[in-house]
Amino acid sequence: MSRTNSESFERIPLYSDLPFYRKQKRIALRNCGLINPDHIDEYIYREGYFALASALKSMAPEEVLAEVKTSGLRGRGGGGFPTGLKWEFCRKSPGNKKYVICNADEGDPGAFMDRSILEGDPHALIEGMILGAYAMGADEGYIYCRAEYPLAITRLGLAIAQCEEYGLLGDRIMDTDFSFNLHIKEGAGAFVCGEETALMASIEGERGMPRPRPPFPANKGLWGKPSNINNVETWANVPNIIRNGGSWYASIGTEKSKGTKVFALTGKINRTGLVEVPMGTTIREIVFEMGDGIIDGRGFKAVQIGGPSGGCLTEEHLDLPVDYESLTAAGAIMGSGGLVVMDEDTCMVDIARFFLEFTQRESCGKCVPCREGTKQMLLTLEKITSGKGAMKDLDTLEKLAVMVKEMSLCGLGQTAPNPVLTTLRYFRNEYEAHIRDKKCPAKACSALISFVIDKEKCRKCGLCAKNCPVSCIAGDRNTPYVVDQDRCIKCGTCIEVCPFQAVSKE
Amino acid sequence: MSPNKVQIEERTREIVAPWKNRQGGTIPVLQEVQKELGYLPEDALMVISRELKIPASELYGVATFYAQFHLKPRGRHIIRVCRGTACHVRGSLLIQEKIKNILQVEDNGTTEDLRFTLEPVACLGACGLAPVMMVDGETHGRLTPDKVMTIVESYE
Ligand SMILES: Cc1cc2nc3c(=O)[nH]c(=O)nc-3n(C[C@H](O)[C@H](O)[C@H](O)COP(=O)(O)O)c2cc1C
Ligand code: FES
């Protein structure tokens, strides 16, 4: 580094001064970006494996479990089930072979918090898993990581090798009687494998299809043995809880949702990225303070929380304190914490169709309500977005939604209708505009818009015609250019290339 | 040169060997074979079925269940265009259309010269950079239809 004088020093802002970081409280992400994840020593320097050392030396497994219960930690992978309770089920389940599993399948499109922990601080989740294995009496573990994250898989492999070298994994860890081995399983690209029973089927080498519960994994999990599965972020919180105490963790957050949650802030927003905030922070603080509002000064329309299983919330929810209960009451879910911001140009009917397309494609096909129900819902939505809908389609949609929700085998089908139900609830007028007026208010549904060139503004440069992929724009140096609506594929290229803003959507 | 039947069978047998008489080998073996050969040829599947003592029908069921496995040869470069939520909201449909147009292929299609395969995927986990595509191992973010052309051309 070159010389630093006080002036250049002043120009370097502190984390705590930046609006993006000011209100964050980083527990699960505490090391991300600060340490080199390839060096176990850097993790140890940040008090890594201190929790494990003190647990193995001075705490009984029951005491570790008790701290996690006291902390009030709930699963960060979607359901929000109390972690301590789940561990207790597994601990009490009879059998001397038990497994702990880390769900690193991160299937929600629009979420990348698990990725940043896997890539930025792999030891945090490994330490969490070793502590969990100790508490539950497991001697073997798996990390199921999606194949789309090759860097995460490499870094996990390195981290595990370093732990083995340091005696933190393997036989007789830290010279105690406790032994634990950890393996990585690479996913093969199926959203439903994020569901815990499907994930276990996938580790066993089968098609990743969910199984009915009960029996729960705590009794009959991987290869029929008692197993406990937690999400990456859940595991990464555990070392902090053991190091600082369960009551410390419980002092953060709201009455029923303790600690912090990482959100992936994306979409039509100025500052995208991961934010870790105490439970109870409002959506307004996240979107407008940390995210610095909507891009290009456009108007806020909605925020989609919880991915394909979640819902869309509106302006009226901006001051909602984010925790498990309040989100569920509003029709969304915490889910994995994907937070996609939408502005006036986003069509809510199209968003509902988009999610249905996703869940329909990813439905494993085992149960009929999900396989056929989502298909029919998607067809109905496509009918509406292409301008062929009728008002009675909305009733059909609602009926199908309730049916799929109540009758599906696993969480995929049970939650798939949520995006449809919330948009119907909060944006019914947009559905009606598509059906009654054959108009897409956000000008996003291609069947209901046309591209028009303003004769006055057109300077006859011909760029639009030259770039049009289907050559449907005609004109020359003397005649203004015109789009042939019958042949136009509505790709929007003309709008983009026109230097004079003469093309508009109608 | 693509390997012949004998070579495929030989190589597959080597990959399967450590998984014989062990649990949970199916998917890792399929992954390894695909990594080597680029796809899962029928000859390889038959070897795996015999060696792991899994009916070929069941193996086929597994291979077709997961999006990652391919039963046909693919291009030298794989273009994964993200169709996740964050990217959708930021216009990934236009990016996808643009690529289809440049390459003249459909989704999951391969160009005739086996140069590119186009795969729409659910999310690349780089949502902050939306819209995103990945060519082989490399991620390209904040795309515009214009940028796509230059990027695609840079891969031989
Ligand atoms: C269709 C479906 C997909 C899921 N995908 C994920 C996922 O990608 N990551 C995850 O951690 N949990 C996912 N879950 C939730 C898991 O089934 C399970 O509840 C979770 O891993 C438990 O960990 P936790 O208690 O720490 O949250 C999914 C559930 C369903 C129904
Ligand atoms: S939604 Fe495109 S990278 Fe996540």
Question: What's the alpha carbon Rg of chain B, rounded to whole Å?
Answer: 18 Å
Number of helices of chain B: 7
Major protein interface: A-B, 54 and 42 residues
**Major beta sheet of chain B, specifics?**
4 strands, mixed
Bound ligands:
flavin mononucleotide, FE2/S2 (inorganic) cluster
Rounded mean pLDDT score of chain A = 94
Q: CATH architecture of the largest domain in chain B, please?
A: 3-Layer(aba) Sandwich
Counted beta strands of chain A: 13
Classify the helix fraction of chain B into a percent range.
40-55%
Termini Cα gap of chain B: 18 Å
Main beta-sheet annotation of chain A: 5 strands, mixed
Task: Classify the beta-strand content of chain A into a percent band.
Answer: 5-15%
Structure, briefly:
By secondary structure, chain A is α/β, with parallel strands linked by helices. Chain A has helices at 6-10, 19-22, 40-45, 50-58, 61-71, 83-92, 113-120, 122-136, 150-166, 196-203, 232-244, 246-250, 283-290, 324-329, 348-362, 368-385, 392-407, 411-415, 418-426, 428-436, 463-467, 493-497, and strands at 99-104, 140-145, 181-186, 227-231, 260-267, 273-278, 300-305, 311-314, 338-343, 451-453, 473-474, 482-483, 503-505.
Describe this structure in words.
The complex is a heterodimer of chains A (506) and B (156). Chain A is of the alpha/beta class. Chain A is globular. Chain A has helices spanning 6-10, 19-22, 40-45, 50-58, 61-71, 83-92, 113-120, 122-136, 150-166, 196-203, 232-244, 246-250, 283-290, 324-329, 348-362, 368-385, 392-407, 411-415, 418-426, 428-436, 463-467, 493-497; strands spanning 99-104, 140-145, 181-186, 227-231, 260-267, 273-278, 300-305, 311-314, 338-343, 451-453, 473-474, 482-483, 503-505. Chain A has 22 helices and 13 strands. In chain A, 41% of the residues lie in helices and 12% in strands. In chain A, helix 4 (50-58) runs parallel beside helix 8 (122-136). Chain B has 156 residues and is of the alpha+beta class. A 4-stranded mixed β-sheet of chain B has the order 2-1-3-4, with helices on one face. Chains A and B meet through strand 5, strand 9 and helix 15 of A and helix 2, helix 4, helix 5 and helix 6 of B. Bound molecules: flavin mononucleotide and FE2/S2 (inorganic) cluster.
